């Protein structure tokens, strides 16, 4: 493999791991990716990671819409009678602005 990690780097990584330094910090110091380091030093890591990724891909299911209690739902939207400028500028619908709510209280 042409992109193999040199032995002196691997020895230094082993010492850093024994000292309790995190993989991410070691990767930043050595300039070698975190996953490449783990694959080189932990036997069977690459296969385990591959299996995890396959499992996660198969598990991803579409999210189900949540039911919201009727008491916390917003009232139905009023008819949108804003002019083009108000729509483009993002003005709130009538009755939906903070000022309208404050005046109605």
What does this entry show, briefly?
This protein is mostly helical. It is built from 6 helices and no strands.
Structural summary, described in words:
It is a single chain. The chain has 105 residues and is mainly alpha-helical. The protein has a domain at 7-58. It has six helices and no strands. The protein has helices spanning 7-18, 23-30, 34-41, 45-59, 84-89, 98-104. The chain is elongated, with a radius of gyration of 28 Å. The mean pLDDT is 84.
Helix content: 40-55%
- Sketch the major β-sheet: none
Task: Give the count of helical stretches.
Answer: 6
SS-based structural class? mainly alpha
Strand content: under 5%
**What's the Cα radius of gyration?**
28 Å
Instruction: Please tell me what the overall shape is.
Output: elongated
Low-confidence stretches: none
Instruction: Give helix and strand order, one letter per element, not per position.
Output: HHHHHH
Our measurement of the CA-to-CA distance between the termini, rounded to an integer number of angstroms, reads: 73 Å
Let me know the average pLDDT.
Answer: 84
List the helices and strands and how they pair.
Layout: H1 7-18, H2 23-30, H3 34-41, H4 45-59, H5 84-89, H6 98-104
From the structure above, extract its key features.
single chain, 105 residues, mainly alpha, 6 helices, 53% helix, 0% strand, elongated
